[in-house]
Write the structure tokens for this entry.
Amino acid sequence: MKKLVILGAGAGGTMMANHLVKKLNKKEWSITVIDQERKHYYQAGFLFIPFGSYTAKNVTKQIAQYLPKGIEHLNIRVDLIKPEENKLIFSDGKEFEYDILIAATGCRIIPSEVEGLDGIGWRKDIFDFYTVEGATALAEKLNGWEGGNLVVHLAEMPIKCPVAPLEFVFLVDWFLTKRGKRENTKLTYVTPLSGAFTKEKTSEILGHMLTDKNIEIVADFAVEKVDPEAKVLHSYDEKTVPYDLLVSIPTNMGDELYEKSGMGDDLNFIPTEKHTLKAKNYENIFVIGDASDLPASKAGSVAHAQSEVLTENILRHIKGEELLQDFDGHANCFIESGFGQGFLIDFNYDVPPVQGTFPVPGIGPFSLLKETRMNHMGKLIMKWMYWNIILKGVKIPFMTSKMSLKGKKL
Ligand SMILES: Cc1cc2nc3c(=O)[nH]c(=O)nc-3n(C[C@H](O)[C@H](O)[C@H](O)COP(=O)(O)OP(=O)(O)OC[C@H]3O[C@@H](n4cnc5c(N)ncnc54)[C@H](O)[C@@H]3O)c2cc1C
């Protein structure tokens, strides 16, 4: 019996288990899914926790509940990979062999990468919302907020869900307005990028929205350190931004196991072939989701698009056939803009966010690059879609893994 191992049972790993269990010959292949956690988080829901719209409970389920029958599930941390021996080393020292490995370990925030960020101010007046604990602590802080200097800060790219910091600043504007605290609050968005977002046209639109909402943008800010006593952010070129409350998106990194195993880049992301999803340096290791170094967005929607291509490529690898070059970097992201409105953007490696309708050409119901109520509804519906359709690998009509240009224009 040959062994296919999926390392990580978050968004990408769970989708792969659900796809592959239907496709692999059970007499020849076993599937093992390994995760250090027992809980699976709907991370897109973390955005809403600081504003009291969701709680931790609303975004948490058991990993086992979403894995298919007929696979093995191990709840343990993998500390090391020995790719030349096709072996994993668990945190209890045991070894585990594989024939094919799918790395689906995602990425996480590492606050210690910025001096002073996780010091005396952490979870006192410096918060994150990229973890369930951070988002929950921030909810409590915002609940008692009377006003002051609120700074939303993005340390460095890449981060998962690159639109989430902007969504946060739009939502905090809405939240404080609703509570009568907006007039007492100066909102500042600090980013290492030269504009609001990574994509030019979208950056222009969202940049205008920041200005319209009286949110100051400080661009090209390469953070050097945080002084938690003086409550000031410092950049390498000696710019400073004072804060009373700092909401930071710290450096995002892949799991440290790739550093130990000599498999990762500087940020512990795995060098991956852009179109096939095979790890660049290994014939029997594939990567899905945030763990790769691909220039695609680190988003659940991207892992969803990748899961279809990767399933086909795993089957081709097993048959000794050439891999499909079919992953085009397709990403599809709802962007909350506050006051019950939202945007939707659709793009890939080569095509910037387009205008038009989604998913049905000429019909919608969602509008691309436009602020609508329906797009906001779409964002809210995603939670149900995630647990009931997306994780289970169920095909969604009109949703294609490759970006379609039908009914869309640049
Ligand atoms: C605030 C926020 C908002 C977001 N909003 C959106 C959105 O609106 N739309 C969207 O598409 N995406 C969004 N995302 C991004 C989305 O959640 C991620 O891109 C997606 O979860 C990535 O899936 P993954 O499988 O790569 O990693 P994950 O889902 O993070 O899963 C990784 C799994 O690997 C396990 N693991 C890691 N290392 C080890 C190890 N050494 N041993 C054992 N197990 C290990 C972890 O425990 C984890 O369960 C958001 C993310 C955040 C934080």
Observations:
- The mean pLDDT is 96.
- The chain has three domains: 2-107+254-319, 109-252, 332-409.
- The radius of gyration is 21 Å.
